[in-house]
Amino acid sequence: MKYHNKFVSYLYILPSFLLVFLLLLVPMFQNIYYSFFQWNGIAEPVFNGFSNYIQLFKDSNFFTSLINTILWVVITLIFPVFGGLLIAVFLRGIKFGNFFKSIFYIPITISFVATGIIWNYMYSRQIGVLNTFLDLIGLDKISWLVNVPLNTFSLLITWTWQQLGINMVLFLMGLTSIPVEQTEAATIEGASKWQTFIHITLPMLRPITTVVIVMATANSFKVFDLIYVMTRGGPYRSSETLAVTMFRETFTMSNMGYGAAISVVLSIIVVAISAIYLRTMVKKDLLYY
Amino acid sequence: MKKGIFFRLLIAALSIITMLAAYGLTGCAQAESVISEAVEQAEEAVEEAVSTEAATEETEAAKDYSGTVLSLLHDKGGNPNYQPYFEAMGDKTEELFGISIEPVPYPTTDVFIATVNAALSTKDAPDMFTWWSTWRMKDLIDQGLLAPTTALWDNHKDEYSEGLRNAFTFDGEAYGYSYTQEYWPVWYNKDVFAQYNLEEPTTWAEFEAVCDTLLENGITPMAQTVQARWPTFIMFEQFVIGEDPQLYVDLCEGKVKYSDPKIKAAFEVWKGLIDKGYFTDPGIDYFVDAPAMFNSGEVGMILAGTWYYESVLIAAGVTEEQIGAFILPSQKESAGKNIVLEMSPICVSSNSQNLEATMVAVDYFMGAEGNEIFAKLNKAYPSNMNSNTDFLPEIKVKIADTVKNENYNILNRYWEATPTPICEEAVDKFAEFITNPEKLDQILADLDVIADKFWSENK
Predict the structure, then answer these.
(1) Which structural domain, as residue segments, surrounds residue B421?
(2) Which of A279, B110, B149, B200 has its CA 20 to 30 A from that of B350?
(3) How far from B88 is each of A131, B72, B101, B263, B310, CA to CA, in Å?
């Protein structure tokens, strides 16, 4: 009977497992396999051992991409994540709160490609609203997407604009789950709002914060479409992140093996950081509770 | 069907044999006329048989291909947008052969290239796709991914120039066909030129004088961009050709290094113009901002292919009366008169599931009438020399006449003339130069490394 139940349980997960196996694991291992080959995607692949990985660490463009990627992660944690938390805290319980929540949430409903096109127009030197404003107040126009490193920060502003909403919603969910009794007790004990926030609200938000940070980190590591639409990683590869470099090497330069090697390195970084962070936070949560 | 022809031919042969026998029996004089009669009868029978066969085959062709849908992948689905033109081509083949064409547009070149490369070796390969000539075509030919179209070029051998056919021929086999060809002149705003009493420059000194006048009057002389990557080679190729056209050919073929003093001199000319403020900020978009600036008179000139006239300038609302064109003079007189030519191939996949029908359609498009369809809609130059060109706007007729009458040296565009791996890296280096011209030496050294790597692996 026990074995029968176990068998039935496995049957239930079989469809999901098959999907993950065929659509995720097989391509993933295929990708790792091809990272040891020199292949243009058309001719027969030629085994070249670790050459792609060795070349990668000699490639200055790879390091530019890596630095840009790290910048994306750091800025994402500061603005979209911390900003989302602030907005959630301030919007909680205020008049017209739902209206403002909707305003902040709308950008996430727009696709990255559409967002990129919209902001391309906003940053346009000729017809963009930002430069028109600068012109109106007598300042020189700026090439937001061409000047280095301003172009990366311009992309990050767009990213922040879009990502704030989803983080705000997640933090709002977290805030709703905090028992009112605890904050009320703290207030009765004479704690200020700031003290209540730091000592009650923030620690109670730790589980949702963990989720938000892991999601935001993974998303910023793999950001591609927004950059591709707005700058294509340019000019002269200055705004490339690892995901864009991977695309360029794979599909523009037809270096399938090299592109696969970049994606392997990118995956290792994302998995390692997420695992370390999750392990630390889960341990803390266990201690806390 | 074959049986009918066989019997007709058999009857013709028998009648000749019978007459020959009669010749033997009745004597030469009489027989001579009899023989000629028999031969005439036989010829008539053969002609009838052949025409019947052709007619039958035609009927069969129409029957066989009706309902066939050919895919045509292209990257001109954004700006410029060729989708309606390709649809019109499909309407015509459907009307004539029952073969319809489904054009599939891709808004960006990178994604288009990636898709085509991935699909070509599979059974889902597109039947046809737009591509680029020379090096970009060679990569696919080397992998056996393109179906030869030599027989079709032979069908139309008197309708195409030898030079054009040669550009589509690799190791004796021709591939794809040319649906249009474009020159690269300078487009200028006639109103602006008229306002400051400027005339089309015929020498480099006159060109610089035009630029100075525009600049003095607050107008940016020329458009330049680093957006979308590829347009960065436009000025580069122009100034290298203006230095020495053979130098440009040698550079593309790997016989000259990027750090060659003459190549550096071309870059120096370019740098000089950037420093003088002859170009727009490179942050502008060549297909959105540039035509808008041209229209409003903020920028005086744009160097672009002849396709830019209809599908970008006119599409952006610039009137025909506002647009003038001239061919940029070489900065060195010794370089002579040169112009860049862009050939536009449509290729046929060797893995096409409708190869026969595709060849029928391509054969038609290579003909004078078929080649005219796209050209007429886009007001472009048809590649077929027998195609009607009455539809060409006056300005394009003038450019073509100038090229022909003044014996301009025609050079293949850098995008196609240079091996793809070099070109793809080089356009980013040109962008770096445009934004940081003071880094010229470093950029030239980087370009040498890129080119040397390719040529050492592909001798």
Answers:
(1) 186-342+396-457
(2) B110
(3) 41, 12, 9, 44, 17
Mean pLDDT along residues B386-393: 92
Has the ipTM of the complex gone over 0.90? no
Report the first-to-last Cα separation within chain A, whole angstroms.
Answer: 37
B363 in a domain, yes or no?
yes
- 3-state DSSP call for residue B311? helix
List, for residues B62-71, the tens digit of each pLDDT value. 557 888 999 9
* Amino acid at the residue B79: N
| B339 part of contact set with chain A, CB < 8 Å | no
Cα–Cα distances in angstroms (integers) from residue A127 to residues A131, A144, B315, in the given order: 8, 13, 18
Q: What's the pLDDT score for residue A280?
A: 81
Convert the pLDDT of each residue in A77-92 to its tens digit.
999 999 999 999 999 8
- The matching CATH number, chosen from 3.20.20.70, 1.10.1740.10, 1.20.950.20, 1.10.3720.10, for A55-288 is 1.10.3720.10
Q: How many domains, chain B?
A: 2
CB contact under 8 A, B289 and A253: no
Inter-chain touch A143–B283, beta carbons under 8 Å: yes
Number of H helices, E strands in chain A: 16, 2
* B50 inside domain: no
Q: What residues in chain A have their Cβ under 8 A from chain B's Cβ atoms? A: 40-43, 120, 124-127, 141, 143-148, 232, 234-237, 247-248, 250-254
Q: Is the pTM of this model over 0.95?
A: no
3 state DSSP class of B19: helix
| Residue A43 with chain B: CB contacts under 8 Å | 143
Q: Cα(A90)–Cα(A96) distance, rounded to whole angstroms?
A: 12
CB of B423 within 8 Å of a chain A CB? The answer is: no
Q: Is the pLDDT of residue B365 over 50?
A: yes
B194 and B160 within one domain: no
**How much is the pLDDT for A287?**
54
| Domain match, B115 and B197 both | no
Beta bridge partners, B411, equal B340
The CA distance from A272 to B194, in Å, is 66
> Does B156 fall in a domain?
yes
The pLDDT-based confidence of B210 (bands split at 50, 70, 90) is very high
Are residues B119 and B241 both part of a single domain?
no
Question: Count of alpha carbons within 13 Å of B254, Cβ hemisphere only?
Answer: 17
Q: What's the average pLDDT block by block, 10 residues per block, for chain A (289 residues)?
A: 76 93 95 94 89 93 93 92 93 86 92 93 88 93 92 95 94 90 88 90 90 90 92 92 94 90 94 87 63
Q: Which residue's entry shows tokens 């005219």? A: B372
pLDDT value for A254 = 85
Rounded to 5 degrees, φ, ψ at B207 are: -65, -45
Domain of B79: which CATH number? 3.40.190.10
Measured distance CA(B208)–CA(B277) in Å, rounded: 12
Residues of A in contact with B292 (CB under 8 A): 126-127
Determine, yes or no, domain membership for B437.
yes
pLDDT tens figures, A91-114: 987 888 889 999 999 999 999 999
Identity of residue B2: K
Kindly state the helix (H) or strand (E) to which residue B72 belongs, with its residue range. strand B68-74
Inter-chain touch A234–B428, beta carbons under 8 Å: yes
Is B79 touching A (CB cutoff 8 A)? Answer: no
Q: Which of B111, B424, B432 sits opposite A236 (nearest CB)?
A: B432
